[in-house]
Amino acid sequence: MNLTLRIWRQKGPEDKGRMVTYPVDDVSPDMSFLEMLDVLNERLILDGEDPVAFDHDCREGICGMCGLMINGDAHGPQRGTTACQLHMRQFKDGDTIDIEPWRASAFPVIKDLVVNRGAFDKIIAAGGYVTAPTGSAPEAHSTPVAKANADAAFESAACIGCGACVAACPNGSGMLFTAAKLTQLSLLPQGQPERYTRVIGMVDAHDEAGFGGCTNAGECTVVCPKGIPLNTIGRLNRDYLTATTKGAGNTPGS
Amino acid sequence: MTKTRSPIRSNVGLKAVMAVTGILLVLFLIAHMLGNLKVFTGETSFDHYAHWLRDIGKPLLPGVWFLWILRTVLVVAVVAHIWAATVLALRARAARPVKYAHRKKVRGSYAARTMRWGGVIILLFVIYHLLDLTTGTLNPVGDPGNPYGNVVADFAPERWYVTLFYTLAIVTLGFHLRHGAFSAFRSLGQQTPRGERRARTAALIFAVALCAGYLVVPFAVLTGLVS
Amino acid sequence: MELFTEGDPIADTKAPTGPIEKRWETRRFEAKLVNPANRRKMTVIVVGTGLAGGSAAATLAEQGYHVKSYCYQDSPRRAHSIAAQGGINAAKNYRNDGDSVHRLFYDTVKGGDFRSRESNVHRLAEVSVNIIDQCVAQGVPFAREYGGLLDTRSFGGAQVQRTFYARGQTGQQLLLGAYQALERQIGLGNVEMNARHEMLELVLVDGRARGIVVRDLVTGEISTEMADAVVLASGGYGNVFYLSTNAKGCNVTATWRAHRKGAYFANPCYTQIHPTCIPVSGDHQSKLTLMSESLRNDGRVWVPKTKGDDRNPRDIPEDERDYYLERIYPSFGNLVPRDIASRAAKNVCDEGRGVGPTKLGVYLDFADAIDRLGRKAIEAKYGNLFEMYERITGEDPYEVPMRIYPAVHYTMGGLWVDYDLQSSIPGLFVIGEANFSDHGANRLGASALMQGLADGYFVLPTTIANYLASGPLEKVDASHPAAVEARTDVEDRIQRLLAVDGDRTVDSFHRELGQIMWEHCGMERSEAGLRKAIGEIRDLREQFWQRVKVSGTGEELNQSLEKAGRVADFFELAELMCIDALHREESCGGHFRAEHQTPDGEAQRDDDRFAYVAAWEFTATGEPSVLHKEDLKFEYVHPTQRSYK
C-alpha cells in the first residue's frame, strides 16, 4: 500500500521544528510501524537527506523506549499496543499518517521524534524503591503476600515507563506513571515502612519536573500499552493525603 | 526530608482543595434545589420559606447572621475552587508548551475535558443569578419581599432567552458535576475499580437528578404550571 | 594464510581448590577487603544497566564506592534484560521435589554440554537462593500461591519446579528491581548515571583497565572517563546475525573494543538459537520476536508428514501430522532443550516439510490443550502471548496453530574471565551475558537472569574488592597519553566512517552480514560453509569501508553513525566466530558441526580433543588471532552423552 506520512522534523532542542510530508510506497501490511519508518530512513539516507530520528530498542513492546504520537494517538490506533508492535495492517492504502513526538515540557524534544524522559527516572530516584541493600534480605518466604495483592501489585508494576500517559494527558500529567509505581509498592508488605515518605518524595519530584496535575480525565489509561488502571491515581491521592494530614502518625521519623 | 512547598500547593493538594470546596458547593446546590422545589407548594409557602432563610439560627444567632456565615463559607469555597482550578490550568498549560498538530477527539470522558470552560460559564451564570434573584438588580420585578413573584416574572414566556440561558447553565453544571463528583471522590482517595464504577454511576445519577430538579422550576413557569 | 595460531594454555588461577561446596566461601574469605573509608575514594565504571550492570552498580554504590554508570538507552530501565519472559531459576526446593544446589549445579553443567567450569557453575547455584530473597525484599511482584507463598514452575525441560516467575515478564520485574536500587543510589549521589552514552574504547594504563572513551549520543561529544576499575556488563552479541531476538541497539562494541585491547574472547561460536520465535515475514523484517518457551509446556509441535502439504492445518488429519519432537524424544517430547528443539525444526524444514508462506516454520498447536483444559485456562496462562502473536501475525492462535521458527537468542560466548570475573586485562571485569563463564555451550532456560543477578549482586562486588584492595593505583586523568591516544582513535574512526560517503546504507550491510552468519554459522555449521563465510565476511567488510553511507555529522544525535560503528565491530567479531566454529571440530550445545553427529543425528562431542575453553587473543585487524586453551576438568559431573530420548 502507499501512504503519505507527515512527520515532525526538528534538528535539535533549539530548532523550532515543523511537519514535513513524505510519501512512502509499497508498504507491506506485515511490516511493523517502525519497520515502515526504517524503509523511509533507508531511502532518505541514500538520497542524502537526514533520516528521521526516533527512539526504539526491543521492538517487542516491553522496553518502553519507543513512543510516537500517531494521528494524535499515543502509540497509534490499536489499544494495548506500543508503536513498535503496531503493524501496518491497521492502516489502509492511501492513508495520511501524522507522526509527532510526545509533547510535554518535562519531555523536551532532543531531535525529530526523540524526547528526553529523564524526568521519569528522577521520580523513581525520589522514592520509587524499597530500601533493601544487597545482602540484607530475609528469607523470601518469611513474609507471605496475599495472592490478590501480589497480582494487583504486578498489574501496576507492568508499567514500561514509555510516557504515553503524559503524551495523551490534556494536562501533561505524569500521575499514572507515578501512581503505578506507588501502587505496586504500597500493596506489598515490603513497601510499607517507606510508604508515606515515598509518596511525598515522588509527588514532589513529579511536580518539580514540570508535569501538570491530574484531573481524572482518563485519557492516560486509554492509551497505556499495559493498561495501568486509573484507580492507581486514587491510591496515590489517598496515600499522599494521609501522609500530609496525619503527618507524625504515619510518616516515619517525623 | 526538607519540604520547600506546602503540600496544599502540590498537584495532589490542589485537587484535594477542589474536591473539598466542590463538595461544599454541591451540598449547597442540593439545599438550594430542595428550596426551589417549594415553588410547587404555592406562593405563601415559598415566600415563607424564603423569609425563613434569613432567620435560621435564631434565637442563637441574631437575624441574618447565619445567612452571612453561609455566604462567607460559599464565597471562600468558590474562591478556593477557582484559585485551585486556575493554578492547575496554568500548570497544565505550562506542561505542554507546544500543541499537537494532529488533535484527536476526546477518548476519555467528554465531561472531563469541558471542566474549565464549563466552570467559567457557571461562574458567569452565578453572577447573573445573584444580580437577578438576590439583589434583584436585573429582575423585572425585583421585589425583595416577593421572591415568588420575582421567579415567575423571570421565566415568563416572553423572556424565553432567560430560560434558555438558565437551561444552558444548568446543563453545563450537570456536565461539571458528572465529572466533578466522581473526580472529588478520586481526588480524596477513592481507589478501587469497583468503587470507581460506583462513583461514576452515582455521579451520573446525581448530575441528572440535580439538573432535573433545577430545570423543573423554569419550565413549570414557562408552561404556566406555576404562575 | 593461517586462520589462527596457537599460544600458551591459560588457566583460571582464582578458583580455590578443595571441595566444590566450600570454594566460594573460601574465596570470599581469602579475598582482600577495602576499608569502608577508602571506598568512596575509588571509582568504578560500569558499562551497561541490565540485570548484571544495574545490580552491580547499585550494590557497589551501596558498599560505598563511587560508581559511574553508562547505557546507550535513554534510561537505565530499558536494557534488554527487560524482555526476558520465562523466569529465574533458584535452588530453593520450595516444592520439595528433590531440588538442591547440587542438582541445579549438575543440571547446568550437563545442560551446558560439559563445556563450562564446575567452580563457577556451583557458585551460581549457591547464590541463586540469595537472589530470590533479594528480589522479594525489593518488592518484585513474583507470582504467588493462594497461601501467599511464591509459586514456581518447571521450565525449559527441567525435571523440578525451580523457576520463579512474574507472569511472562520476569525479566522486566527483576530489572526494575535492580533499576530502582540503582536509582536510589543515583538519588543519593553515589552513582553518576550517564544515559544515552556509548562506550567506544577502553583505556589501558600500565596494562590495567583505567577508563573508557564514551560518546554522548545526544551531543556527539567524545569524553574520556577514568576510574580504578572498569566493569563491562554490555550484554551479548546476537545481533551479529542482524535478525535476532535482541533489542535493536544490542551490540558487541564495548566487549570487542576491550578484546582489541587485549581481553581474550572465549567461545565466540557458542550461540543459542531459541526454538519458539515468530517466523520471518518478509525482507523488511528488523527483528524477531520470541514466544516464551513456556508455550511448549502445553503446545504440541508438528509439521505435515508429507512434503509440500499446503492444506489449512485444521484440515490435516491427525495421522498425517508428524509430532516430530514427541516421536524422536519420547521421554522429553516437546520439552527437549532449546538446541535440540531448534535443530529438529531446521531438519524438518530442510526436508521440505516446513509450513507458512516462507516454508520456514513449524506449527505449535494448542488445540489439544484447549480441549483438555478449556480455553479459559489457556487464556489465563498464555493470554498475553497469544495477543502478542496475533498483533504481529494477524492470526488468532486459539483458532489456527501458531507458526514458530528458531531464532538467535543468546550468546554463551563472551570475554574470558577467571573465577573473580576478571578478564585477561587486570582491572577489567566482565559480568552477565558479556562474559563466557557459566553456561558452557548451551544455556538452560531461566538461567540467564540467574547469572546476570548472581554476577551483579553477589559475585562481582566481592571479587572486585580483592582487586581494588591491591591499590591504591596511581591517580591518572584524561590527559594521560594513553587516554589521549584512545580518544584520538575514537575520533579518527568516527571521521573515517563519515568520510566514506558511499552508496549503501549501514543496514544493508548488516542484513547481508546476518544472512552469511545465519546460513553458515547458525544452527548447523560445516567446514566448507565456514570457510566460505570467512571469505565472504572479509569481502563484505572491505566493501563496507568503501561503500557505506553514513548521513549527518558526529556532533549531533546520529543514529546512522551509531549503527555504523556497531556494524563495523560485528564484521570483525563475525570472522572470529566463524574461525572458532571452524576450529572446534565437534558438536556441543549451541555449536553443531554437520561433520560431527551420531548416526541418529545428535550432537557428538569430542571430549578428548575439545574439553577446553577457546580463549582468543587479538593481534591486529586481518591478522590471525592466537588461541589459548583453558582445559576443563570435571571432578563432580562426569561428561556423558546428553540424551533426551
Automatic annotation (TrEMBL), chain A:
<dbReference type="InterPro" id="IPR012675">
    <property type="entry name" value="Beta-grasp_dom_sf"/>
</dbReference>
<dbReference type="GO" id="GO:0009060">
    <property type="term" value="P:aerobic respiration"/>
</dbReference>
<dbReference type="InterPro" id="IPR036010">
    <property type="entry name" value="2Fe-2S_ferredoxin-like_sf"/>
</dbReference>
<dbReference type="InterPro" id="IPR009051">
    <property type="entry name" value="Helical_ferredxn"/>
</dbReference>
<dbReference type="InterPro" id="IPR006058">
    <property type="entry name" value="2Fe2S_fd_BS"/>
</dbReference>
<comment type="similarity">
    <text>Belongs to the succinate dehydrogenase/fumarate reductase iron-sulfur protein family.</text>
</comment>
<dbReference type="GO" id="GO:0009055">
    <property type="term" value="F:electron transfer activity"/>
</dbReference>
<dbReference type="GO" id="GO:0022904">
    <property type="term" value="P:respiratory electron transport chain"/>
</dbReference>
<dbReference type="InterPro" id="IPR017896">
    <property type="entry name" value="4Fe4S_Fe-S-bd"/>
</dbReference>
<dbReference type="GO" id="GO:0051537">
    <property type="term" value="F:2 iron, 2 sulfur cluster binding"/>
</dbReference>
<keyword id="KW-0408">Iron</keyword>
<protein>
    <submittedName>
        <fullName>Succinate dehydrogenase/fumarate reductase iron-sulfur subunit</fullName>
    </submittedName>
</protein>
<keyword id="KW-0479">Metal-binding</keyword>
<dbReference type="InterPro" id="IPR025192">
    <property type="entry name" value="Succ_DH/fum_Rdtase_N"/>
</dbReference>
<dbReference type="GO" id="GO:0046872">
    <property type="term" value="F:metal ion binding"/>
</dbReference>
From TrEMBL, chain B:
<dbReference type="InterPro" id="IPR034804">
    <property type="entry name" value="SQR/QFR_C/D"/>
</dbReference>
<keyword id="KW-0812">Transmembrane</keyword>
<keyword id="KW-1133">Transmembrane helix</keyword>
<keyword id="KW-0472">Membrane</keyword>
<dbReference type="GO" id="GO:0016020">
    <property type="term" value="C:membrane"/>
</dbReference>
<feature type="transmembrane region" description="Helical">
    <location>
        <begin position="202"/>
        <end position="226"/>
    </location>
</feature>
<feature type="transmembrane region" description="Helical">
    <location>
        <begin position="160"/>
        <end position="181"/>
    </location>
</feature>
<feature type="transmembrane region" description="Helical">
    <location>
        <begin position="65"/>
        <end position="90"/>
    </location>
</feature>
<protein>
    <submittedName>
        <fullName>Succinate dehydrogenase cytochrome b subunit</fullName>
    </submittedName>
</protein>
<dbReference type="InterPro" id="IPR011138">
    <property type="entry name" value="Cytochrome_b-558"/>
</dbReference>
<feature type="transmembrane region" description="Helical">
    <location>
        <begin position="110"/>
        <end position="131"/>
    </location>
</feature>
<feature type="transmembrane region" description="Helical">
    <location>
        <begin position="12"/>
        <end position="34"/>
    </location>
</feature>
Automatic annotation (TrEMBL), chain C:
<keyword id="KW-0813">Transport</keyword>
<dbReference type="GO" id="GO:0050660">
    <property type="term" value="F:flavin adenine dinucleotide binding"/>
</dbReference>
<feature type="domain" description="FAD-dependent oxidoreductase 2 FAD-binding">
    <location>
        <begin position="44"/>
        <end position="449"/>
    </location>
</feature>
<keyword id="KW-0249">Electron transport</keyword>
<dbReference type="InterPro" id="IPR011280">
    <property type="entry name" value="Succ_DH/Fum_Rdt_flav_su"/>
</dbReference>
<dbReference type="Pfam" id="PF00890">
    <property type="entry name" value="FAD_binding_2"/>
</dbReference>
<dbReference type="InterPro" id="IPR003953">
    <property type="entry name" value="FAD-dep_OxRdtase_2_FAD-bd"/>
</dbReference>
<dbReference type="GO" id="GO:0009061">
    <property type="term" value="P:anaerobic respiration"/>
</dbReference>
<dbReference type="InterPro" id="IPR036188">
    <property type="entry name" value="FAD/NAD-bd_sf"/>
</dbReference>
<keyword id="KW-0285">Flavoprotein</keyword>
<keyword id="KW-0560">Oxidoreductase</keyword>
<keyword id="KW-0274">FAD</keyword>
<dbReference type="GO" id="GO:0005886">
    <property type="term" value="C:plasma membrane"/>
</dbReference>
<dbReference type="InterPro" id="IPR015939">
    <property type="entry name" value="Fum_Rdtase/Succ_DH_flav-like_C"/>
</dbReference>
<keyword id="KW-0472">Membrane</keyword>
